[in-house]
Design goal:
It is a single chain. With 239 residues, this protein is mainly α. It has one domain (4-238). The chain contains nine helices and three strands. It has helices spanning 4-12, 15-48, 62-97, 102-116, 119-133, 164-168, 175-183, 190-215, 217-238, and strands at residues 139-147, 154-162, 188-189. A three-stranded antiparallel sheet has the order 1-2-3. α1 (4-12) runs antiparallel to α9, α2 (15-48) runs antiparallel to α3 and α4 (102-116) packs antiparallel against α8. The longest helix is centred in the first third of the chain and has 36 residues, at 62-97. It is elongated, with a radius of gyration of 24 Å.
């Protein structure tokens, strides 16, 4: 039985170990973004079920509704900031580690095709600059009442929205982001556009992870076999 310490040292000094760490580092930046989205989504979806008879809409408890709106704004801030962190961390790492490699060009092409012309993506990116460097967006609680064909009857939907007209007063929106605002038929449902952007990032991150796994398949298979070898050696040494 080989010495576990020798196996562990071979693993830690290997290129495969560095590659695995790189992949895990990218996943960490995505995980922060995803966690912030899930927190925001949980609050907004929970509020979505609030009906007019719900205590949160009681005029005497309006301070609670205001506090909930502040929480939604806080979580939106975290979502936007972590979206920027994910984009920057991913770009910097790939530029540094894959410069001159075909994967760097593939990454840039994918990023452009997925985000550069996407109205919702550019809006989220610009909203981050708006919120961090210009103003907090005006956020309101909104109750939507719709008449539906029977048997549904009346449907109710609570949401937190951003004031579209107030946003349009800012003169630094990119063309796709301004188009997203002007083409919206009403104020912006926070859950709607954050969910769309999260889906874009989730798909992009999955593509990156898949391509890196393909690109480094030999190294990663070697690492897996060495880790299994290490576990076996450690188990054998304990008997």
């Amino acid at each position: 039985m080989e010495d576990p310490q020798d196996i562990a040292e071979e693993i830690f000094k290997s290129q495969a170990y560095l590659i695995q760490g790189r992949i895990e580092y990218l996943y960490s930046s995505y995980s922060i973004f995803d966690h912030n989205f899930q927190e925001l989504k949980h609050l907004l979806e929970k509020f979505r079920g609030a009906e007019p008879k719900d205590p949160i809409w009681n005029i005497e408890r309006r301070h609670e509704l205001g506090a909930l709106g502040q929480d939604a704004l806080r979580l939106l801030h975290n979502f936007l900031a972590s979206a920027k962190t994910f984009a920057d961390v991913t770009r910097v790492l790939i530029q540094a580690r894959y410069q001159g490699h075909p994967f760097a060009d593939q990454y840039r092409q994918e990023a452009v095709s997925r985000f550069s012309t996407s109205q919702v993506a550019r809006f989220v990116q610009d909203l981050r600059n708006y919120m961090l460097h210009y103003s907090l967006p005006i956020t309101r609680a909104h109750l939507k009442i719709q008449m539906q064909p029977r048997p549904e009857g009346i449907t109710l939907e609570s949401s937190f929205i951003l004031d579209r007209e107030a946003l349009l007063e800012w003169d630094r929106w990119t063309t796709p982001a301004r188009a997203f605002l002007t083409e919206s038929s009403s104020d912006l449902d926070i859950l709607g556009f954050t969910r769309q952007y999260h889906s874009l990032v989730q798909s992009f991150h999955a593509w990156i992870q898949r391509r890196l796994s393909e690109l480094h398949s030999t190294d990663l298979q070697w690492l897996q076999s060495m880790q299994e070898k290490l576990r076996a050696a450690q188990g054998g040494g304990q008997q």
